[in-house]
Amino acid sequence: MGTVFSFDVRGGDPRAVEAALASAVAGLHKVNEVFSTYRENSQISRLARGEISVAECDPEVAEVLDLCAEAERLSEGWFSHTYQGQIDPTGLVKGWAAERAARTMMAAGASGVSVNGGGDVQLCGAPGPQRPWRVGVSDPLRPGGLAAVVSAAGADELAVATSGTAERGTHIVDPRTGRSAVTDLVAVTVVAPQLTWADAWATAAFAMGSREGLSWLEQLPDVEALLITAGDEVRCTGGLARRLG
Predict the structure, then answer these.
(1) Would you give the end-to-end CA distance of the chain in angstroms?
(2) Which of 67, 74, 142, 152 has the largest count of CB atoms under 10 Å?
(3) Does the pLDDT value for residue 85 go beyond 80?
(4) What is the reported pLDDT for 172?
């Protein structure tokens, strides 16, 4: 998926956890093989060319495309799983894959799991008694600095996803024009229970711009967000303060 994944796993039987970790890593490699838009022979590339049908793909393809369709519906088209007329679910699949990997580890008996996929993080359980997971949010305008620290205190699961221009430049596409999204934003960080949705919502909100993006995010249940503009203005949803610490 063109990025680095890391695991922080706490508790559980060492042998069971080791086996689950091997399975989770293999699963991430399989996702890359199936969904990569850069591999000519990946199932998603062959599907885009009309060489195979969804029914002929692995079941995960239909699952991800259904999730993409739901994200597109809920965002009123600001999230899209097509690019230049071709199927491209990369705006959602990385978060979905990381979330699935975290659940694999929890199912094996881990008491706490953090899976970081290129800066987007799925948290489950806790790292220790009375110790919540905490995630630093990079400041896009001050390299090496933090814009905020998100705490998972009181949550069985929490995800943190950021979309912006600081790391990869203007890579987010405005689905209504097909060109790079040009807005007043440099970063959108979304906090939600599941990384599948946090990842998709961050992308959609960035394409909307700060005013429309913040208004839309406020309406989503169990979702909080931090938006930073190019003018160094910080905007956030009403309940974000409860997640900082």
Answers:
(1) 31
(2) 152
(3) yes
(4) 73
